[in-house]
Design a protein that fits this description.
With 374 residues, the protein is α+β, with helices and mostly antiparallel strands. It folds into two domains: 83 residues, no CATH class; 284 residues, Phospholipase A1 (Outer membrane phospholipase (ompla), Chain C, Beta Barrel), CATH 2.40.230.10. The protein has five helices and 13 strands. Helix 1 runs parallel beside helix 3 and helix 2 packs antiparallel against helix 3.
Length: 374
C-alpha cells in the first residue's frame, strides 16, 4: 500500500508538472530534476518506467516546440533571399530583350544599378583611310593643316547605363514594367603606333542619352513578337574646340522584336534638333550619317552571334553605313552559362564611324575583345 501510494504520488506530481508545462510553455530546470527524483523514488518497476516514459515524451515535445519558432522564420528568410536576388536581369530562361530592358517584373534588377549598354571593348583597327585633316562646310570648322595619322590604330569603347525609374505608367499589378534609363557611351581612337607624334588619341566621342522604354507583347507574322517601344533624347559631341568641334542632338523613336531566342531586330528613327547656323558644327550630318537605324542579331548557337547594323539617310541614296559583326563567346560563368566576354570582329563601311568622320566615307576592319551586358 505504501509503494502504491508512493507510485501514485510520483505520477500525480509528474502529471501536475506536465499540466504546468502546457500552461507555461516549458518546464524549468529545478522542476525537471524534481520530476526525475520522483520517478526514481517509485518502487514499482512498471510505474517507474511509465514515469520515465512520460517525462521523456514531455521533453521531446518541449524540444520540438522550442524549434518551431526557428522553423516558422524559414519561409520569411527564403522570401527575403529571393527579394534580395539581384541577377534576375541575367536569368537565361527569359529572352534577351526582356533581360536587357528588364521588361518584366521577373527580369527586374532594380534602379540605380550600373549595367552594360553597348559593348565595353578594346580593338585593333585597320582602315583604308584616316582623316588627317577633318573638315566641315561650316565656317571655321576645318583643320589648318594635316596631321600624319596612321591608318592602323586602337579603338576603345566604354558604355554603361542605369535605370532611373520604373513602373511609371503601368498598372500596379502588371507583370510587365516600363522604365526610364540614363546611358553614357564613349568611343576613342588611339594612335598607339604613331610614336613620331606621341601616340595621341585622334578623336573621342561622348554620347549621353535618356531613354524611356515601354514593354509590349504583340504577336507579329511568322511567330515574331514585338517586345518594346520607346523614345529617347541623345547628345553626341567630340568635346573639341574649334575648328575640330562636332556635335548634334537628336530625339528618336525605337522598337524591338524577337523570334524565339535566335533572332532579334531593333529599329530607331530620329529627328535632329535644329541649331542656328552660327552654332552648327556639322551641317547636313543627318544626310550622311543617317536618320534611321536597323540592327539585326542572330544567335547561331551558344557560342556564335552574327550582327548586321544598317544606317540610312532615308532621303539620299548612297549615304549611311553598314556594320557586320561576329562575336565568339570566350569561357563560361561559374553557373555553367556562357560568359559575357566575346572575341569581337567588325567590318564597317560608310559615314560616321566617328563623329569627326561624319562627312568622310571609309572602310574599317577591327578585331578585339568585348564585354557585353553586365
Amino acid at each position: 500500500m505504501t509503494a502504491l501510494n508512493s507510485n501514485s504520488l510520483a505520477l500525480a506530481a509528474l502529471f501536475l508538472n506536465i499540466g504546468h508545462v502546457s500552461a507555461q510553455g516549458q518546464l524549468s530546470a529545478p522542476d525537471r530534476v524534481r520530476t526525475l527524483q520522483m520517478c526514481a523514488a517509485t518502487s514499482d518497476n512498471a510505474a517507474r518506467l511509465d514515469c520515465y516514459d512520460q517525462w521523456t515524451s514531455r521533453q521531446s515535445a518541449q524540444a520540438v516546440k522550442a524549434v518551431q519558432p526557428v522553423t516558422s522564420v524559414l519561409p520569411e528568410q527564403t522570401s527575403s533571399t529571393e527579394i534580395a536576388r539581384t541577377d534576375a536581369c541575367h536569368d537565361g530562361q527569359y529572352s534577351a530583350l526582356s533581360r536587357f530592358w528588364e521588361l518584366e517584373t521577373d527580369t527586374d534588377c532594380g534602379t540605380f544599378r550600373f549595367r552594360g549598354y553597348r559593348p565595353l571593348s578594346f580593338s585593333a583597327v585597320g582602315a583604308d583611310t584616316v582623316n588627317q585633316q577633318p573638315s566641315s562646310s561650316a565656317d571655321n570648322r576645318t583643320a589648318a593643316s594635316p596631321i600624319n595619322y596612321n591608318n592602323t590604330e586602337a579603338r576603345l569603347q566604354l558604355s554603361m547605363r542605369t535605370k532611373l525609374a520604373q513602373g511609371l505608367f503601368m498598372p500596379a499589378n502588371s507583370k510587365r514594367q516600363d522604365s526610364l534609363w540614363f546611358a553614357y557611351s564613349q568611343q576613342s581612337y588611339w594612335q598607339v603606333l604613331s610614336g613620331n607624334i606621341s601616340r595621341p588619341f585622334r578623336t573621342t566621342d561622348h554620347e549621353p542619352e535618356v531613354i524611356y522604354v515601354y514593354p509590349t507583347d504583340a504577336k507579329l507574322p511568322f511567330d515574331w513578337r514585338l517586345r518594346y517601344s520607346g523614345v529617347g533624347l541623345v547628345h553626341q559631341s567630340n568635346g573639341q574646340s574649334l575648328p575640330l568641334s562636332r556635335s548634334w542632338n537628336r530625339v528618336y523613336l525605337m522598337a524591338g522584336a524577337e523570334l524565339d531566342k535566335r533572332w532579334m531586330v531593333q529599329a530607331r528613327v530620329w529627328k535632329r534638333l535644329s541649331e542656328n547656323a552660327g552654332s552648327d558644327d556639322n551641317p547636313g550630318i543627318e544626310n550622311t550619317i543617317g536618320r534611321g537605324e536597323l540592327k539585326t542579331m542572330w544567335n547561331v548557337n551558344q557560342q556564335h552571334t552574327i550582327g548586321l547594323t544598317w544606317l540610312h539617310s532615308l532621303r539620299q541614296a548612297g549615304n549611311g553605313s553598314t556594320r557586320l559583326e561576329w562575336l565568339r563567346t570566350i569561357g563560361t560563368r561559374d553557373d555553367g552559362g556562357k560568359s559575357n566576354l566575346r572575341l569581337h570582329t567588325q567590318l564597317f563601311s560608310g559615314y560616321g564611324d566617328s563623329l569627326i568622320d561624319y562627312n568622310r566615307k571609309r572602310t574599317v576592319f577591327s578585331v578585339g575583345l568585348s564585354l557585353l551586358d553586365f
